[in-house]
Amino acid sequence: MNSPWWSQPCAALDREAADAAWLRQSKLTKPPGSLGVLEDVAAQLAAWQGVERPRIERVWISVFAADHGVAAEGVSAFPQAVTGEMVRNFVGGGAAISVLARTLGARLDVVHLGTVNDPGAIPGVLRAVIAPSTANFCDAAAMTDEQLRAAMQAGAGRVHQALDEGADLFIGGEMGIANTTSAAALACALLGEMPERIAGAGTGLDDAGIARKVAVIERGLRRHADADTALEQLRRLGGFEIAALTGACIAAAQARMPVLVDGFITTAAALTAVRLNPGVRDWLLFAHRSHERGHARLLEALEARPLLDLGLRLGEGSGAAAAVPLLRLACALHAGMATFEQAGVSIADSQ
């Protein structure tokens, strides 16, 4: 029996290109290490792109929208209709990620995987509807096997489209009322953590709302305690958009496409992807530390050092988009600074 596509090997990093980038860094007119993480980013991008002087020019942002059955438990401060309404707002240019993509000159790709409030066919929105929503994980598995595969394949398909159109960086975003509850439940299962350590305010819950969310997650975890693989935990507790993000991370790593990971929900998907295929980790760069309670624990599990810490918790891929200028600056400094020899500047005395 053939193994599933998501378990196929990931691409290898180009270590020679990374070594060449570090050698160039050592010759630039600055003290060694003085540009800190920007130097690390330049070398990492070199390893991904296989060139000494990488560039980030064509950024692709896929936002996956889907609804969650667990919203029936009252775990969100917003009504479920918002998911479908935001699909229209994304392509209408009014959402935060729309503004960020426009400012960056990035491609914004909106993928509708299924909402209770279906906005219908909208120009600029890819309809890949699986169902109006997942099932309520307190009562049943969130997805069937077929739905899980369809969602993961939807994410992989957007990566392949991005590659076909010449993108050199992939950002995944999400929209789905109650998806912080789903992501928190999935994170608890993956990490073996208690819900009160992971579940946060999401769309703006007060303390009572967070306590209700914790209780709902506890019910879901008890019901699905026998889910003993990352794939089954994703199927039982995840969402269509979380599964799509998981598939996108894996497909990107297999196809040499670097991924700039956003916040709490996308990091839960990234951890799932790494559990399914450990080689994925080499192709992930983490944009920011979200204000959402459980994000720091997910980052710790992935041994990730995020680029930014701005108190963000919007989702949509917005935190990742906000970090793109840092990547571009890292590339510009790496390629554009003079070496000591070119500038006629004396090098430091060896100690």
Automatic annotation (TrEMBL):
Gene3D superfamilies referenced in this protein's UniProt entry, alphabetically: 1.10.1610.10, 3.40.50.10210
Any Pfam family the entry gives: DBI_PRT
Key words of the record: Cobalamin biosynthesis, Glycosyltransferase, Plasmid, Transferase
Active site annotation, chain numbering: 316
This protein's pathway: Nucleoside biosynthesis; alpha-ribazole biosynthesis; alpha-ribazole from 5,6-dimethylbenzimidazole: step 1/2
The reaction(s) this protein catalyses: 5,6-dimethylbenzimidazole + nicotinate beta-D-ribonucleotide = alpha-ribazole 5'-phosphate + nicotinate + H(+)
Enzyme class label: transferase
Molecular-function GO term, any one: nicotinate-nucleotide-dimethylbenzimidazole phosphoribosyltransferase activity
Keyword NAD in annotation: no
Domain of life: Bacteria
EC number assigned by the record: 2.4.2.21
PANTHER family given in the database record: NICOTINATE-NUCLEOTIDE--DIMETHYLBENZIMIDAZOLE PHOSPHORIBOSYLTRANSFERASE
Function noted in UniProt: Catalyzes the synthesis of alpha-ribazole-5'-phosphate from nicotinate mononucleotide (NAMN) and 5,6-dimethylbenzimidazole (DMB).
Membership in a protein family: Belongs to the CobT family.
Cited HAMAP family: CobT
Protein name from the UniProt record: Nicotinate-nucleotide--dimethylbenzimidazole phosphoribosyltransferase
Organism: Lysobacter stagni
Taxonomic lineage: Bacteria, Pseudomonadati, Pseudomonadota, Gammaproteobacteria, Lysobacterales
